[in-house]
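Our consortium's second objective concerns turning raw sequence data into structural hypotheses that experimental partners can test. To show how far this objective has progressed, the report includes one record in full. It was chosen at random from the queue rather than selected for favorable results. The single chain below, 432 residues long, was entered without modification.
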Amino acid sequence: MPKVERANSLTARGGGPAVVPAVAPPRPHVPTRPSRSRKARWIDPFEAREIRRLVREFGSPLLIVDCERVRQQYRQLNRALPGVLLHYALKPMPHPAVVRTVYAMGGNLDLATTGEVDLVARMGLDPQRCIHTHPIKRDSDIVDALRRGITLFVADNHDEVRKFARHRGKAQLLLRVSFRSPGAVCDLSRKFGCDPEDVASLARLAKDLGVEIRGLSFHVGSQAQTAAKHVEAIEVCARLMTLGRREKLGAFDLLDIGGGFPIDYAQRVPDIGRFCAPIRKALSDLPNRISVIAEPGRYIVGPAAIGVATVIGRAKREGHWWYYLDDGMYGSYSGQIYDHARYPVEALPTVDFDPAAEKLPSVLAGPTCDSIDVIAENLMLPELRAGDLVIGRSMGAYTWASASDFNFFPKATVVSVNADAGDVGGVVQVLR
């Protein structure tokens, strides 16, 4: 049986987190040590029978996070960007099981808020393996991060650089540069980053204030369609770092290339190795003294989770079936609004369902009383009934993290499986 562990300071359904094996034994027997006699295996949490079992155990709505898929995604990106140190960005899924999985793989962490800093501290992880990348911070955010042992920060304007004057000798800075990318699904350089021509003046101000500049950072935006903007940013930053070093404005020995690496949703994207090929070429031209880091979030966790919702009611309107689920746009499907994502959705009817049954144009709606709470229309689905399950794929990023309990419908319960590499698939219930 899998090792049983307790998740610290997290609650589930009003009590402490329950930890059970992937194949649950009769209660109340819960083993405390893995059996040496059983061969370890990886379970597929996305297989229909396992989905139904987890719903019986933990209820619905449910978000199932597969830590083995997190490992696969990390390995793939690590191979695609050799020599680049990956810092998992907690923002899309700040789940302890995901953080712990990446950390155990040798990955570092990208934090942006005091809440994320506190989470990592509670988990007992090394702050020297963390960076703080929010370009705009309260002074209390800087103080809290420094108190926890995090020393590398990001700034993108003169006022922000000045905030670090009182922390000189303790904090180091990366200057974030803007490279607008209208082709990205979310153009982050619209909100953050300085113009390339402003880098020198920011570095001079930092030097005058006694604040140490380590290098530059950029983020080309989310779900980049090609690597062209990454390449442009790397080449421009290389020139800026050479000039900054020549003027003795800082070490300029660290470049953060951000994230934006795409994953499949409703549409397929290029293989990550092929996508990163131009990036690898651009990085190979950098001087050997420059170390490179990246901030992947979505790529690591997006494909590693599915959302499971239950049909709670149905109605026929204008000739189409409307199916009302216990999760929706204010819950796990919030990413369709905030993140502009379209998750592949499919039905998981009851076990005795006829696979040859006709599929009809259908509508999936969330549970709230708001008319905007419609997940998808004109989906070809078999006729469903109350109690049937609906599955959303690639729902690890910007789903549960941005969900609310609007209308007093609770957020999905999160469970993680395959938490330990080589284990027989421990299931950990963590949060609603």
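The partners drew two points from this record. The chain has eleven helices and 18 strands. Residues 148 and 413 are 30 Å apart (CA to CA). Both points have been shared with the crystallography group to help prioritize constructs.
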